[in-house]
Amino acid sequence: MKLLITGGAGFIGSNFIHYWTHNHPNDEILNIDSLTYAGNITNLASIKTNKYKFTQVDICDTEEINKIFKDFKPDNVVHFAAETHVDRSLDKPDVFIQTNIFGTYNLLEASLKNNIKRFHHISTDEVFGSLDLDTADKFDEQTSYKPNSPYSASKASSDHLVRSYAESYGLPISITNCSNNFGPYQHPEKFLPRIITNLIDNKNIPLYGDGQNVRDWLYVEDHCRAIESVLLNKSTIGQTYCVGGNYEDISNLDIAKMVLDIFNLDDNKIEFVKDRPGHDIKYAVNWTKINQDLGWKPKYDTYQWLEKTTQWYIENESWWRPLKTEAEQFYAKNNQ
Ligand code: NAD
Ligand code: DAU
Predict the structure, then answer these.
(1) Burial 254-276 (b: 16+ CB within 10 A, else e)
(2) What confidence tens digit (pLDDT) does each residue in 276-326 have?
(3) Looking at ligand 2, which atom is closest to the CA of residue 252?
């Protein structure tokens, strides 16, 4: 297989490249990434195989993207590249519209011209909006789209574009809508790395609102296995799969208490701060379809892998320390 990976220097993309080079050592990978503040090429420094290459390029640059497709001749595209941080999308939505919508369009056009065998689009459960806190309902492949932030609206638009290229032009596509990932190499502006690195620095855990918001946490390697199961199964072309990790609801307050427990600290480290505007109250994902069709299910237990993730941040301070100052400046500006 010749895989063109977009956004492979980010959190999930770099975990995916580690996973793929380890499990499919004969496949060729070209990682294209513009290295925004969220991209970090050192995430991939330990990959030594000459089957893996990196090129710095913006997915919105049509000419460069056409050249990449012509020169590398990928058979599969796995599209991770995006602006991904909800809080930043509330602050400055324009770059989200550009990268997540126009960038995806650019890649779809190039994929069509170059007879790609599969365009796999990485999307999010946030496109479905929010569930009520007390409902047992979960998002699934039939749930209608109702995005609430510029980030989720731009991701919803990209999903629609991807589907339209299958319907209108016959492009072989697949989409996964995944819940909140956690694990190594996640930027310290996101919730879990932020609270772990705050505790390492002996600071408080800032919880938005009353901390009752529920997210569906998935260890990043489980997400990588889900993408692998979709890519390697030829019958899945044109399909969408919802991917999630939890069996029971876990609130942000619950997660904060689990991390405090790992650090042997008590709850007085929790500080309730100003809420995020339009903050979705609950995400929960029904992953029955990917389980029944492809046999995938989450393998990693949340508490145990939170411990391992915490340990990773403790051992890799040199990775996150340079990113932390700027992340905290962003939050300070917004009183969060
Ligand atoms: P991330 O922000 O860590 O990484 C995004 C990567 O894309 C970075 O390396 C960045 O440099 C690159 N990028 C951004 N704009 C680009 C451009 N114009 N051209 C080329 N590269 C560009 O994001 P992540 O958390 O790894 O998310 C990856 C994908 O998974 C995204 O599409 C996101 O919407 C989706 N997703 C994320 C989660 C999650 O919990 N993190 C959950 C579900 C879906
Ligand atoms: O659901 C999948 C999505 O998960 C992805 O599509 C996004 O790219 C990813 O960023 C993530 O979005 P969230 O908004 O859910 O993630 P975030 O890490 O920003 O916040 C998780 C929850 O924690 C959310 O309810 C807001 C809350 N939070 C966040 C921060 C940074 C806090 O309470 N305090 C904080 O300091």
Answers:
(1) bbbbbbbebeeeeeebbeebeeb
(2) 999 999 999 999 999 999 999 999 889 999 999 999 999 999 999 999 999
(3) 23
Which domain range does residue 20 map to? 2-182+217-243
The answer to the question of residue 202 being in a domain is no
Query: Which two structure tokens, joined as six digits, stand for 276?
Result: 């995020």
- The enclosing H or E element of 241 equals strand 240-243
Cβ of 88 closer than 6 Å to ligand 1, yes or no, is: no
19 is catalytic: no
201 is catalytic: no
| 3-state class percentages of the chain: helix first, strand second, coil last, to nearest 5 | 45, 15, 35
Count the Cβ atoms, other than its own, within 10 Å of residue 165: 22
Residue 204 lies in a domain: no
Q: Domain containing 238 — which CATH number?
A: 3.40.50.720
| 296 three-class SS | coil
Q: What is the pTM of this model?
A: 0.98
Q: Please name the helix (run of DSSP H) or strand (run of DSSP E) that holds residue 205, with its range, or none.
A: strand 205-208
In a domain, 285, yes or no: no
How many domains in the chain? 1
Does the beta carbon of 188 lie inside 6 Å of ligand 1? no
Q: CB of 274 within 8 A of CB of 336?
A: yes
Q: Residue 141: inside a domain, yes or no?
A: yes
